[in-house]
Amino acid sequence: MHYHITQTERIELSLLMRLGHSQRNAALVLGVSPSTVSRELARNRRASGQYHATTARLASYGRRTDANALRTKLLTNPSLAALVEKKLRENLSPEQVAGWLATTKRQVLVSAQTIYDWVYLHARHLLKHLHCRKGKYRATRENSLRKAFRDKQKEARRITARPAHVLARKTYGHWEGDTVVGKGHSGCIATFVERKSGYLRAVKLERGTAAAFTAAAQTSFTDVPARYRRTLTLDNGSEMSNYETIERQTNLQVYFAQPYHSWERGTNENTNGLLRFYFPKSCSFAAVTQEQLDLAVQQLNTRPRKRLGYKTPEQVFKAKW
Q: How far apart are CA 263 and CA 268, in angstroms?
């Protein structure tokens, strides 16, 4: 989910741009990701290329108004809604209904997403006529409530609640986790890095689902001694949502970094960067095997590190087993 900056942040961004700061520096000052700043500037600059907070607010408000109007189009046009319902009852998909409407050259058209939203929000009696009823479309109140509940649970597990001594890297057993995604979402790799030694475990995932990530965590920590399974700090991806299951299976206490604060998992981010040498962003993971991944991980774990006195992560970590 994208982060939308506030009007106060827009005012700060406008000033930073006028002072000649780069987008990356502005992102650091605002405490948001560089992509958030880039997206804001791309969407809300004036035609002249300048960025002004007031103009940006009006542009953002206009887009939201237009989007809301699209989502209510079927509510304000009963005859169109009746026609869409008729076609859905004939077991046409929303894509087919939207495409058919376009061929009729009607003045009012709707997209497939608008039809899905309307069914899930206002015409749930038509759900049985949809070919896909797995809740992948975003507009149900029930899904929103579940997400809000998960987010509330995560807030109690933020990195700010993690024991302060973990930051000092004085003890072993504190890990960081994330996923590395292949080109075109062609699979991903779950990575787990021990903070003090830099020792890496990684598992190839066919899909970046919560179930797959949970299974990868269990596999990665099966043979790690219990005294070296203390905490695990994760990113905020949806694949990490089964953190309570991970805790039960691994006896690790799970915490979450603040959103868009990748530096709070710096060991993991740096190690993922090293892994990218073997599996660059241009690489499809479709043909990557676990054996190939294991070989890359072995090379990284046996690579001397300056901060370890030129010992390897494997030497440092496994010496404590």
A: 9
Domain boundaries, the chain: 7-69, 72-129, 155-318
Q: Are β-strands 231-234 and 174-181 bridged in parallel, bridged antiparallel, or unpaired? A: parallel
* Residue 199 structure tokens: 């020792």
Give residue-wise pLDDT tens across range 210-266.
Answer: 999 999 999 999 999 999 999 999 998 889 988 999 999 999 999 999 888 888 999
* Distance of alpha carbon 239 from alpha carbon 230, whole angstroms: 21
Mean pLDDT is lowest, of 45-49, 75-79, 135-139, 183-187, for 135-139
**Top-level CATH class of 155-318?**
alpha beta
Q: How many CB atoms lie within 10 A of CB 256?
A: 26
The pairing of beta strand 200-205 with beta strand 188-194: antiparallel
Determine contact, residues 253/213, Cβ cutoff 8 Å. no
0.70 cut: is pTM over it? no
